[in-house]
Amino acid sequence: MKKLSIAIFVFFCSVNSINAQLFVSKILGKNSSKYTKGWGGFYAISIPVSTADAVSAEIGFNIFFLKADNRYGIITAPLKLGYSYTFDRSGTGFYVEPQLGYNLAGVSPSYDNDSYRYVEDKFNGVSTTVNLGYLMNWRAIGAEIKVGTRAETVFYGRGAVTYAGLMFLLSWKKFRN
Length: 177
Prior knowledge:
Blueprint lengths: L1 H13 L4 E10 L9 E11 L4 E13 L7 E14 L6 E20 L4 E22 L4 E14 L2 E14 L5
Antiparallel strand pairs: 1-2, 1-8, 2-3, 3-4, 4-5, 5-6, 6-7, 7-8
């Protein structure tokens, strides 16, 4: 598994069209009040399949700290493939992007009654995401700006972690005239 993770990391670092995304989120569900606001970052590549659509690959992380003890929290590191579809078929404007992948590394806290402290449970599992947002090209400076919302669920043996939030992407690219 470590060799696969290293190969994936090297692949993402060698591609010229990598876009960095920032993500601010909130855990959803019955235990959500135990956690702080989450922060995440992603590296994504998009390969156009038409003027309006693209296949995407993404690797990233999310972290949510426990309010009671900020040394512990939930961390996810999903690797996903997706398909970006713009509604007006121009390649800009409103879009939807479903994604499916696998959480390469995850950590979740649980309270150990014997030692009276939190311990970290490690997990892996299927990850699903839906991004909804707006994509615009700022040709004057050669930038692409993507803002939107994201809902993501990571499934694992003991349950699932679901979170939603806002994402922002700014990438520099060369546009064709």
